[in-house]
Amino acid sequence: MMNNNTNHLDNDTVAMLQNKAITYTLPIVYSLVALISIPGNLFSLWVLCCHIKPRTPSVIFMINLSITDLALASCFPFQIIYHIKGNHWIFGKKVCSLVTVMFYSNMYSSILTMTCISIERYLGVVYPMKLIKWRRKRYAFAACIGIWIILMIALHPLATKDLTYNVQELKIVTCFDVLKRDMLPSMLQWAVFLLTLFVFLFLIPFIVTVACYIGTIRKLVQTSNTHHNRQTTRSIYLAGIVLLVFITCFAPNNFILFVHMINRIFYNKSFYPAYKLTLCLSCLNNCLDPFIYYFASKEFYQKFKQVFGRKVSLSDNMDIRRESLFSARTMSARSMSSGPMEGIEGVKVCLQRQESVF
User: Fold this and answer.
1) How many helices (H) and strands (E) does the chain have?
2) Residue 2: inside a domain, yes or no?
3) Are residues 86 and 145 in the same domain?
4) For residue 322, with 0-12 CB atoms within 10 Å meaning exposed, 13-18 middle and 19 or more buried, which class applies?
5) Which of 27, 73, 169, 176 is the most exposed place for a label (fewest CB within 10 A)?
6) Mean pLDDT (whole number) for 54-75
């Protein structure tokens, strides 16, 4: 970010734009992420949309996550060319804004979606009967729509402002690497923008996610038996993958961005090279998300085995049957308070379900 609206940059910013570590590292990382994430998320989307019926709330959240990852992957070629050409943007102002919004919407959509998955799992394990009415598909759809509405509002400044900048010293045009202070009208609006990204879109969802998985695992351990031991193991793996994504992919970028912007605004100091390197770390969640599907959905886990030539074991089939019967019993109990016709239909639906708890 610039200190003022002059046409000349300070020496630190010019040095950052000429930093060879960034110029060489980012295209390599983005290329590797694209090669891994595109096939992985296409496969995930195929399984989630075509081979898991009926679609549970968790599956709806996973579909949202997979679509977001593929949308971000479509932006990688623009970023790769940009850095290969020495941080020179050749695609125009509107594409710059689109790519920038896509990068940040992917990260924060992933964070909020993972939080929704953790809450849905927590409610299903700790309050399976009391809060069953909140674990419905329409609420999952509403949550996904709500996530995107929140993101469009929060990222509105990035979508509507010109994020390109003509660097006369280097004869290049940057994209979201140099920002004018007057991109937002006042310091208060800058503060609101930064706090929204860091506190409401990262820190609070992270705390909620950790708390939900701790509560879920504790409940499973308390009710542990032979069958639940398998579920507890899968829940621990799932919690570990989610926490790995938060700590490795999201935390470094969000903390460094927050520190960088505060120091740049008030103390004229920059952490931008470190921020750019952690930004590519945030894209690694595209590669890790399919592992979340693997541990979060029994059906995804089984389809993965089938596609890659591993037979589903008898114990896995028995688990599915137990879970289907459990789902039927849950819906039957619910039907006692909802009327005979609704209850019969609910039992019919649940007898077809193969939803896993973890």
Assistant:
1) 16, 2
2) no
3) yes
4) exposed
5) 169
6) 88
The pTM for the full model equals: 0.79
Residue range 262-312, pLDDT digits in tens: 777 777 777 777 888 888 888 888 888 877 776 666 667 677 777 666 554
Burial pattern 66-94, b for ≥16 Cβ within 10 A else e, equals bbbbbebbebbebbbebbeeebbbebeee
Nearest-angstrom CA–CA distance, 236 and 81:
40
Closest CA to 331 of 132, 122, 81, 140: 132
Looking up residue 112, the CATH number of its domain turns out to be 1.20.1070.10
Task: Tell me how far apart the alpha carbons of residues 266 and 247 are, in angstroms, rounded to a whole number.
Answer: 27
Query: How many residues in total does the chain contain?
Result: 358
Helices (H), 223-353: 226-244, 251-266, 272-282, 285-296, 298-307, 314-335, 340-351
Instruction: Pull the structure tokens for residue 21.
Output: 């570590």
The answer to whether residue 143 is domain-embedded is yes
Classify residue 274 as exposed, middle or buried by CB count within 10 Å of its CB (0-12, 13-18, 19+).
Answer: middle
**CA distance linking residue 232 with residue 323, whole number of Å:** 14
Q: How many domains are there within the chain?
A: 2
pLDDT at 108 over 80: yes
Q: How far is CA 287 from CA 162, 234, 317, in A?
A: 31, 19, 28
